[in-house]
Amino acid sequence: MQLRKEMGRWTPRLSAELGLLAVLLTCCCAQENPCFAVRAGTCSECLQAWKDCAYCPEESFKGPRCDLYENIIAHGCSAAAALTAKSSMMIERKQPINMRLKQSQVSPQQVSMSLLPGEEKEVDVEVFAPTKGPLDLYILMDFSNSMVDDLNNLKRMGTQLASLVKDLSDDYTIGFGKFVDKVVEPQTDMRPSKLKEPWPNSDPPFSFQNVIKLTSDAAFFDSELQKEKISGNLDAPEGGFDAILQAAVCGDKIGWRDNSTHLLVFSTESSFHYEGDGVNVLSGILARNDEGCHLDAAGKYTKDTQQDYPSIPTLVRLLGKHNIIPIFAVTDHSYTYYEKLREYFPIAEIGRLQEDSSNILTLMRVAFESIRRKMSIRAEDKPKAFVTNFLDTSGRVVEHGAFDFKPGAIGNFKMRLSAQQMVGGKPVCQLEPLGKKGSIRVKPTTFNAAANVDATILCPSCECEKSAIPAAAKCHGHGDLVCGRCQCYDGWLSTFCNCSESSAAQDTSRCLGPDMKDPCSGRGDCLECGTCVCYNPDQFEGEYCQYDKTDCQRYGGFLCNDRGSCIRGRCACNEGWAGNACECPNSNATCLDSKGGVCNGRGECVCGRCKCPESDMSMTSTCAPNFEAQLGVCEGTRSCVQCQAWKTGEKKDKTQCDKCPFKIVLVDELKEEKDVAHSCSFRDEEDDCTYRYNVEDWKPDSKVKELQFQVLKKKDCPPASLLWLLPLLLFLLLLLALLLLCCWKYCACCKTCFQSCLALLPCCKGGRMVGFKEDEYMFRQSLLTSDHLDTPMVRTGPPKGTDVVRWKVTDNVHRSPTHPQVLMKPNPKEIIPFPISLRLNRLFSENLSRPDSRDAEQLRKEVADNLNEVYKQIPGAQKVQKTLFRKQKNAGKRQDFAIMDTVLSAPRSSYPDIVKLTQKNVQSGNLHDLKVVPGYYTVATDREAAGAIEFQEGVGSVDVHVPLFVKDEDDDKKQLQVEATDVPLGIAEIGKRFVNITIIKEHATGVFSFLQPAYTYSRGDGVAHIPISKEIIEEGSSQVTYRTRDITAKDKKDYVAMEGDLTFGPEETQKIVPVRLLELSEKDGLLADKQVRQFAIDLSNPRQGAKLGRYPRTTVTIADEPDPSVMMFKKGSQNFSTTDPTYTIPVVRTRNQDIPATVKWRTKKAQRFELSDLLKFSPGETEKNIVIDPRAHPGPIQPETIQLELFDPSVNATVGERKTTLVNVADGPHYKPLEMEQVQNKSAVKGGRLFSPTNLKAKATGPRNIRLNWDAGSGNPAGYKVKYWIYGDPEKDAQVLDVKSPQAELTDLYPYCDYEMRVCSYNALGDGSDTDIVTCQTLEDAPGEPGRLAFNVISPTVTQVSWGEPAETNGNITAYEVIYTPIDDDLKAVGAAKKVKIDNPKKRMLLIENLQRAQTYQYKVRAMNSIGWGPFKDASINLASQPTRPMSIPIIPDVPIVDAEAGDEYDGYLMYSNEVLRTPTGSKTPSVSGDDYTSNGKWDQNFLFPGGSATRNLSSSSSPMSTVGSNYRGAGGSFTETNTTYMSAGGSQRTDMIRGGMHSSEVIMRKRSENRSYMDENIRDSIVMGDVSGNFPDLSGFGYAGTQSSSQSQFSYSLSGGPRARTESTDVNDALYNLDRVLYDARLSPGIPDTPSRLVFSALGPTALKVSWQEPRCDRDLQGYCVLYQLLNGGKMNTVNVTNPAENSVIIQDLLPNQSYLFKVKAKSQEGWGPEREGVITIESAVDPKSPLSPMPGSPFTLSTPSAPGPLVFTALSPDSLQLSWEKPRKPNGDILGYVVTCEQLHGGGDVRSFEVNGDTAETSLTVPNLTENIPYKFKVQARTTQGFGPEREGIITIESQDGSSLSQYNSQSMSSREVFQMPTEVSTRMNVSHTMMDPYFSDGAMMTTQHMETSGMVTRQVTKEVVQRSVMGGTTVTKKMFYES
Description:
The protein is mainly β. The chain has 23 helices and 118 strands.
C-alpha cells in the first residue's frame, strides 16, 4: 500500500518530467546536439561525448542532466554544481630558426596537447629551407637491353652529372642503382644460356642491385659507373617498383642522410609491374610484399622471387615516410603511365626523356628547381582519433603543395588538429590507447626535421561517481544515488526504482496509449513497468513507439527539406529554417531586390519568396514589373501611358485602363535622358503625333515604392498641310524605280548611261574604277614555290559600297591557233579534277590548318556533305576530296575568314555548268546547308579557271588567287592571261583589265638520284649511310629534299626518321644521308618468325634548275643480326713441363658456328715473351689451338705461370666466360692430362705456388648434402679451400669451406639444385691453382606448400579456385591434390571430404560445380613430386557471402572442372576449359597453328568452330590410359566424330561396365547458346565427360545413341525435354554464357557496326534541333540508323528511323524549350544493331510567362549541355571505408551550394545512405565508413545549385580482400565495376583492367575509363619445357609459344 502511494505521488512528477524531456528533445535534437546521444548514460560518458557537454549532478534538477552548458544553466542547474572538462596545450620546446645553418628547420620542435572529443586547436609553425641545403641524389636506372644507349650516354656524362649535383648543393652525395625484373618466368628467360648472358656482352638478369652507395666522391662514382653492363629480361613492363621500395627502406645500405633532401631519379622507357597485376600468378609468387629491406652484401635484392611487387599506395606511403621525392625520367613510350602515377605522390616530378637519355641532366635540373618551389606539409604517424588541416597565415585551408615558401626565407603556416567525436561508428573514447594517443610529426615532405606534437584525447571521468549514496531515499531504498541519478538494484525498475519486476509489472496494458489497440503500437516490446522498447529505434520513437521518424512532411522529395529532423511526428527545423517541412528560410535574403529592399515594396516575403499583389502585368520574383517579358520597359508601358494621358490606344477603354499597375504624372518638361532610367517615345496612331515620357526608379528613402512615369503634356505633331504630298511622292518614286530597272535589264547602253549618271551623283563623287595593279609577271619554273600566284587587284575612287569583280585565266595564250596542242582537242567525256575554292562564313583557326585535328575533320565532313549534295546534279560528278583550309592575307575585311580548297572530279565538258552552279549558290550565300561568303569563288580545270573577288566598303586592294597550271609538258616559255571580265555587283568600271604571266621552263642543271633502288644494312652497323648522287649537266648549286617513310620498319622502333634539304655545290656529285638504326627490342628478339623490316627514302622538290633522275626512291632493308658466336678457352688452367716442345692451348666456339669469326689472343705475365695473334674460325669449325713454341724465344726455359687472354672478337662474335686461362709450366717430364693420370710431382713450383688437386668428384648424398673427394696433388698443402655456388650465379658469390683433408661434406644446400664446385690447396705462401669446375645436383625433397589460394566466385554454388606453385618445388612437380570439405563454424567437418587429383602440374586452377548453397567449405591443396606429397595449403570460404563476378579474361589455359556431386576419390573426370578462338571465315589473316604433342596422358581434342578450329587439351586421371579425339561441328564445320577409349585398372569399382578390360563411357554434351542476336557462330560449348553409371544416378533426361565399328565409334547426342535426374551445373553454364557475352559484346563480330563516333547538335530554333553523327566503322554495308530521344526526366521515347545510310543527320521538331533531352543514335547492318551513342542537350530560350512551354517569337536561343560532377575517384582507406572524391562540374548551370552523395549496395540489400557535402571547391572529397568487404556499392554524386539539382555522376566500387586477408590502410583497392575487353582490328592485343564510370551527361556520352594497357604484336609465354599454344583471332593474332611477353 505504501509503495502504491509513493507511486501515485511520483506519477504526476514523472509525467511532467517526461513531457519536459520530450519538449527539450524536440528543440535540441533539431540542432543535432551531440550531448543527447548519451543522455541516458553516466556522468563520465556525458563529458566524453563532446567538448561542450556538461553534466548536472544536483538531485533536484529536473532537466536533461547531459546537455550543453548553457542549456543546463537555463534549466536551473547552478553554475557551481555543473560539471565540465577543460583541455590543455603547451609548447615544450621552441628554438628559433637559425638561418645561418644550412639545413632544414622547423619551429616549434615539441608541442603537447590534450583535446576533448570534437575539439580543435591550432599551432603556428615556422619552416626554413636553405638556399643550397644538403642533397642526396640516388639514380635508379632500368638495365634492360633497350636502355643500352641510355647507359652509354650516362657513362659519358658521369663527370657532368657530378658537376650538376655540385651546382645544386654545396653538401651533396650521389649514388646509383640498377634494376630489371624478377628472375622468374614469365618475366625472365630462364634458359641457362640466357641466365648467364641474356644479350651479347651483358650481365646476368637480376631484380635490383645497389651499385654505388651514396657518396660525395665524384671521381669514385664516375669510375664505378664505367664498369656497368646492361642486362635483359622478357616482358616489356619492368620490376622498378621492387627497386624503389628497396631504395627507400634500406636507408643505411643506400646511404641516405638524416638532414638532407632525398631525391630518387627513376629512369626507364617501359611501364611497370605492380601488386596484383597478375603476372606473378604464373610463377606462383602470391605473397604480399613485406616492405622490408632484403639486400645482401653485394647490394642485390634477395626476395624478388618470393614476394609480389609493392602496390602504388605502399610506395607513396614509404617514400613519404623516408622523405624521398621521386623524379620519373621516362620516354614517350611510357610517359602517360608515369604521368598518372605522379598524381598519387604529394610531391613528384616527371620529365620526358629522349630515346638515348641525352637530356637527362637538363631534365634533372628542371625537376629539382620545380621541387624547390613546392612544399607539401604532411602529418605522419597520426592516430585514428585526429584529423589535421594546414592553413596559410590568413586562415585559409591549403591543399598539398600549395605553400609558396621560398628557399632561404622563413615560411609560416598553421596546423589545425581536430579530435573526432566518432571513429568507425563508436565514440572516440572507446578506441584502443594507440588510436587515442600518439606523437604526430608535422613537416614538409622534403624535410627530415619536424614539429613533434604529442596529442591525447582527453576522456574525463566524474568524481561524483566514486561517492555513490547507497539505498538512497530518493531511490526508495531500491537503488544507489550516483551523480544525482538513481541506479536501481536488481528487481527494481523506472527512474526512481519504484517499480518491481512482479507479475503486475508485466501487464501490457501499461504499454497502450490513447486509442491504441496494440502494445507499443505494434512496433516494440512491452517490458516491465510499461516501458516500450522499439524494434527499430532509428525509425520509431515515443513512449509507445507511436512516432515514425520517416513520417514527417517532405519538401522537394526530402524529409523535412533535409533542413531538420523528424521528431515525434513533426519536423524540428535547423536554425534559420521554419515551416511544416522546414521549407521556409527565416531570413529574407532570397526576397531582396536589386536596391536592397524587400520585394520592391510591393509584396511581402513569405517563406523565402515574395508574395506579390495581383496584377495583369507580369512581375519578377521580387515583385518588380517584368517589362523584359514584354520586349522592354517602353514597349510594356506604352499602352497604359497612352490611355491615361490621351485616352487613346489599345487600352483606351476605361475598364482596361484602370487595370494598369501604375499612374502617370503630366509635366511640362522632361528631365535629361541621362538622369532617368528609361526615356520612351511613340507615335499615336490616331493623330500621327509623337508623345514622350520618362520612367524613373523609386528612391530607397521615398515613401512611394513605385516607378515614376512622367509624361510630356505636349505632343509633337507634323504640319497638316503637307500630309497629302506623301502618297504622291511615294507613287513618283516607285515609277522612277520601274523605269530604271527596265533600262538596266534590256538596254546595255542604258546601263552604261545609268552608271555614268550614278557616278555623277553627289554621293558617288565621280565613280569608281577596278583593275589589276601589275601588267606582267615573269617566273622561272625551278624557283616556283607554289602552284598559285596572288596578284593584287586595286580599286580607285570613292570607297563606299561593295563591288564584286569576276575574272578568268587562260593557259598557253602564247600558242597560235595552228599550234599542234591547240589543234588537239581534249576528250569532253574525260574525268578531270576541278579545284574549287570558296570562302566559308566562319573564322579561320589554327586547328583548321592541321588536317588531322578534330575541328578540321568535322568541318571537312560538313563541307563534303553539302558540296556533294549541290554538285550531284552535275552528270558524272564524283564526291569531293582533298579538302583543306587556309586563309588569304590581302582579302579586305574578310581575311580572317576560312577559305576552303577542294577537288571535284567530273567530265571535262561540265566546266561551264560547274561555274554557273557555283556562282549561283555563292551569290545566295549557301551551298545547301553550308554558309559561304558571297562574292568569292574559284573553279579551275587543267587549262582555264574562273572566279570572283569582292571589294568591301573601305577596301582598296584584294588579291586574286590565280592557278599557274604548271605541267611537265609545258613549253619552254609559256604565257597565261588573267582577265577581269565584269562587275556583276557594284558601280565600278574595269580599268586595267589584263595581266600577263610568263613562266620560263629552264633545262635541268643537275639530276638527283639514289645510286641503287635498294640497300641492306645490319642493325649492328648502327647507322645506314645512304648516298645521293647528282649528275652535273650545268655547273651551279642546287637543292633537293629527302624524307624517310615507314614500310614494315617503324620510326622510333627500328630506326630514327630523317628529313631535310641537301645543298650541292657547283662541283659536288654525292652526299650521304645517315639514318640511325635502333637495336632490336627485347620482345621482337625472341620471336621465331621475324618480319623483314624495311623503310623507304624519297627525294622530292628539286630546286635551282635540278630534277629527279632514275631512282627517286630507295628501299632500305634492316637485317637483324644473328646470334653471335661465343669463343672461349676450353679449360680454365692447363699444365705443361719445361721439357714439352710446345704448349697447345685449345679455344672452342659455340653458337652460330656456320659463319666465319675471329678473335685475338695475347699472353700476360710471361717472363721471356709477350705474344699476340689472330685466331680465325672457318664456317663449321668449333675448335682451334693456340700453339706456343717456348724454344723460339731467347733465354732458358724456366718454371712459370703464363696467363693467356682472348679479346677483340669480330662483330659477329663475342668472348665467353672463360676469356682467360692459366698455363702452368713446371720442371720435369711432360705431365699427362689430369683426366688420364694424377700428376706425380714431389716438389712445388718455384715460388711456392701449389698445383691444383686432381680427380675431383662430387656426389649428392641427400636433398641438402653433397660429398666431395679429390686427390691431394703435389706439394705439402696446409689445407684446402672448397668453393661452391649455385649454377648460374657468378663465382665471386661462392661460399668457401676450409678443410684439412682431401674430402668435404657440403650441407644446408637447396634441394634439387645444381651447384658448381672447385677446390684449391694452400700453404703459408698462399693459394694454389684451382681445379676445373665440377657440377652436381642435390637430390629431390618433398615440395613445400602451394602459394596463396585465390577464389573466383562464379555463383553461390560454383567457384574457381587457383593456387601458386610452391615457393620450394624441391623437384619436378608431377601432380596436385585438391580436397574440399563442408565445415561448420568450429571448422569441424559436417560432410564427406572430396578429393581431386590433377596430374598436370601446370593446371593450377580448378572449377568446382554444384557446391552446397550457403555452406562454408575448407579447401586444401598440396603438391607432389617424385619424393611424395608436400604439406597442405588451406583456406575456408562461404560462396554465398562473396560477390559474384564473371570469370577473369584471359584465364590460364586448361582449367580443370569437377562436379561436387559426382562422387568420391578422384572419380570426378576433369574437363579443361581451354576455349580458343580462330580466324573467321574469309579473314585475310591466317590462323597460327602450333606443334602437336602428347605427354603425361594428355591428348589434343579438336573442335571445328564456324569457319575455323580450336584446340582443347584433355587430361584423364581416372584411368591409366585415355584416348579422346573429337571433332565438333558448328556452323560451316565438319561432321561430328568422337572416339573414346578407357583402360581400367585393377580393382575398379565399375565392374558392371567392364567388357574384356575395356570400359565404355557415355559422353554428355551440354550446350548453352544465346537467344537474342546470338547466332550459331557465337555458341560456346561446355563438355563434361565422366562415368555415367558411376557418377550419375540416372540419365533419363538425356538421349544417347551410338554405333561402333572396328575403326571408330560414332555417337550422336540429343537433349530430351525431360527433367535431368542429376543436378545440372547451371551455374557454370551461366558463368560461361556470361563470359561469352563479355567476349561477344566487347569483340563485336565484324558485321556489327561500332558506336557512331561523334554526336553533334545544331539549334535551328527554340524548338527545333539538328542531330548529326559520324558514320561508325563497320565491315559490312550499313542499312540505316535509329535516333531515339526523350525528356531527361522521363516520358515517352520517340523514335526516328533513317533508312538511307548516306544520311547521318535528322531534324527534330516540336521540342519543348528549356527542357533537357536525352538522345541516342545507333547504326544497323545486316548483322544487327550496333551500340548506342548518347548525348544530352537543352535549347534555352525566353518563354511566354503565361505559357512556359511556348517560346517567345523572335527570342534568341542557345544550346547548353548540363554536366555532372567530374569522374569519381575511389581510394580505399581500410577494409570497411573509402574516400570518394570528384571534380566540380564543368557547366554547373547555377551557383553550386553543395553536393548530395548516395550510396547503396549494387545488388540490393542494406539501406540507401545519403550524405550532404557543402562547399563549392574545384575538387571535393568525402570519407564513407561502415562498408563491407567484397560487396559492390553504387555511388551517385549530384550537385545542388541555385537552379536545382544537376545530373548524377555514377560509379561502382568493390573493396576486395583475397584469401580472407585484411586490407591494409594503404593497400590499393580492387576496382570491379565493369570489365572492358577489346579485340582491335590491327595486329595487337590489349588487356585492359578498367575502372569504368558511365556518364551520359559528358560530351559525346563518352566512357571515362582508367586503365592500364599492355600492348604487343605477338604474345609469347614460356611454360617450363612444354609448348602451349593459344591463338585468338578476329583481326588479331596472339601466340603463346615458348616465351611470354606482354
